[in-house]
Structures are given as structure tokens and as C-alpha cells.
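Record type: ASSEMBLY
Status: queued
Input:
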Amino acid sequence: MTNMKNQKTTGLRPALVAVVAASLLAGCATSGNPKDPIEGFNRAMFSFNETVDKAVIKPVAQGYDAITPRPVQTGVSNFFANIADLWIGFNNLVQGKPGEALSDVSRVLINTTIGIVGLFDVASEMGLEKHDEDFGQTLGRWGVGDGAYVVLPIFGPRTLRDTGGFLVDITVDPVANHEPVDVRNVALGLRAIDTRASLLPAESAIDAAALDKYAYVRDAYLQRRRSLIHDGNPPREVEDMSYAPNENLLTMVPIESTWTFMLVGAPATGNVDTPVVAALNTAQH
Amino acid sequence: MFKRFIQLMLLCFAVSASAQASAGVAPDALIKGVTDDVLTTLRNDAAIKGGDARRAADLVETKVLPHFNFMRMTALAVGRDWRTASAEQKKQLSDEFRTLLVRTYSNALTSYRDQTVEFRPFRMAASDTDVTVRTQINQPGARPIPIDYALEKQDSGWKVYDVIVAGVSLVTNYRETFSSEIRAGGVDGLLKTLRAKNATTASK
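Status: finished
Output:
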């Protein structure tokens, strides 16, 4: 894993250092958004990522999209999605959703066998829905607050909590831990390109929609994560006219205490169901 | 005699049914009707498939927009600063926001390939005036994308005031941007930014 990170960033390191230095020198030009206390740094990192994407990642993804027949692309997506299902199942389990976890494990069994090493998503056709879980969501379920928004180099938007979750995700990632190393590298590269290619259609819509692309992506990321943590049913937000200034302050945990929660794993505040409540809800269904 | 009676009954039923239809289609039926209509057009329109955004915008204008409440959407996007805007500013804001959303939506339609739309189970009480209709876009080889429509009941029927794609409200996602624009340059500052944005997208 450490190797992978080094490899990905080595060539970019001088540029990265320059960006970080520039953003620190510029002082954090923040607009006082409580969810985004290091906005100056984040904006610099965002434009760095955009530059790298435009120069390298996107052209490769476009090339891949152009030369790879649709069924092959689908097979590649399915293959990596199948590998991911095991960890998704684990996360569902520790979030107190044994039913979903069981479904995820069944998906792996079915897709690996009948679906020929995961190339075909037979399980979805049989009605076993694909879930979207990661360790950041699990932490959210456990009551860990978002913490500050942060844009990571190359990997892009995260919250502090999701950065912690992401570190766990890549530590246990079967692809990143695969031996031998050259096969692993090809697999990691292919997965990255496949992911990037799947995002190509959404991009022009974002460009058309956003007044300020940085803020648009940030706010969409935060909304999306909130929705995912609640499995698509987030509690409804306060209505427009009665909209309280910075309502998010109510549910937001200051950064320092978020770190504390991360370290000690203490269940906290928040409107997120505890695993027990979630388990009860699942049982009622 | 009996036959006449039945005929009369049927007639009454038909009249009351059509009256009900004009007074307001049920929200889920409304979304389904509009979606089916748009999908049928998309499937048969080579120009839109080829990326003709103007043609897609026409489609949105005629089939989709009549069912949206843009004033409400704009209020929702602007948030608490909405109260500080004058009636004229509100009107202008909602016009510009409408243009921006139409562009975005038409742009998304041009990337339509062969997705299908599935309607999630919908339940509402007769007294409800604010409901959410859930749909999902199924696409071969990719995870389905949920799209939810929030509607409110008005005298003229149910109107959409929010569209939520994969958990992201296309309306409230603007709130932070709008309020920082208003903080920097007032409501007129936001209007200016919106006009500039719409002008650049129009020239493309």
C-alpha cells in the first residue's frame, strides 16, 4: 500500500509541494464556511487535481472509453465491483445490517461462480441489489461527525472522517494487497481508469450547472455522503423559509473532537441511528 | 330503463373522472407521465442523441417545465437570504435560475443512451400536500441512479420543487454558493453572476 502511494505521487511530488506551499503562503482564503475551514488549501488542491486530471487521467480514460467495447467495459466494472462486495458486506455487518451483509456475501458467491469470476453481475438480475458502503460510512453510522472537508491530492474530496475511513479501505483492499506487484499495479491502474471513465458523462453536466465548480463539487460530495450514510433516506433538512442560519452547526462536531472520536471510536451525538436501532429497523422489514 | 340508468351512471362517472384529472393528476402519475413522454421523445430523436442541446432544451421547455415551481425552487436554493430580496429581484432570480437548470437538464438529456426508468413504490394520504416520488435510472453494467422528485400541491395541480439525484439536491446544492455570492455583492451580485454564467453557457 505504501508502495502504491509512493509510486503514484513520486512524479508529482515537486508540483505538489509547490501547490501546498503556495496555498499556505496565500493564507487560507476562506469564506468562513464552517464545514470548510481550510478552503484556501482545498481550492489549491482542487485545481491541482483538475490540472492532473486534464493532462493525464482524463485523456487516458477517454482513450479507454473509445477503444474498449461496451461489454468489455461492463465486464471490467463488474469484476472490480465483485471484489469490493466482500468489504461492503463487512461494513454492512458492523453497521448492524446483517440482512444486507448476507445479501452482499451471496452476491460474491453467485457472481464469482455463475457470473464467471465476477465478469457478469448475475446477482443483480436475480434481485440481489448492489450496495454502496465503505468504512467512512460505517464511522458515520457509528456517530462520528463529518469533520472538516478536505481535498486530497489525486483522490479528491473527502471529509476528515471519510479520510480516516479511506485509509482503512485501502489497507484492506484486496486489489492493493495483491501479489505479485506487477499484476497488482496493472489491476490498480485498470480500476482507476475504469472508475474515471464511468464519470465521463456526469462531467459536462457539472460544468453546465456550477457557478463555482469547487463549491458545487464540495456541496454535492457532502450531500451525497450524508445520503449514503442514511442509505438513501437522510432525515429531511429544515425547510427554506424557516431555514436556520448554519443549521449544519447543530449536527457538526468540531474537528478536534472528531479526531478524538476517530481515535477512541466513541459513539457520539448526531442524528444517525445506532447499530442497535438500525438492527431493529432491519428486523421490522 | 335500467340500461338508461347504467348509461347515466357511466356518464356521471366519466365526467367526474375527467374533472378530477384536470384538477390534479396524482403526483406519481404525473411524474410517470412526464418521464414516459420525455423518454419516448429521446428514443426517437436522433438530434438529441447526437448532442443537440438546443433541441433537448425545447423538449424540457414544453414537456417538463410546466410541472415545476421555479419560484419555490429559487427560494429553496437561496435559503434565508430570500427574505431580503425584493419582489422584482425574486422574479429575476427565478428567471435566471430557471435558465441555468434548463441548461443543466438538457445537457444531461443529450447523454441519454438506453437507460430505463423504474418507479419505486409510492404511497400518500389523501390529505398530503408535500410528497416525494422516487424513481431510479437503470443502466446496463452500472449501479442504478436514484432520482427523487419533491412535489407540492397547488391549485393548478402538483408542482415539482426539488430534484434529488443520488442523494444530491440539484436545488439546495446551490445554497452555499448563492449565500456567499450574496454576502459578497448582495442579491444584485448574485444576479450578475447568474447572468454571466447563463451568457457563457449560451454562447457554447
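Annotation: The two ends of chain B are 69 Å apart (CA to CA).
Annotation: Chain B touches chain A through 38 residues (CB under 8 Å).
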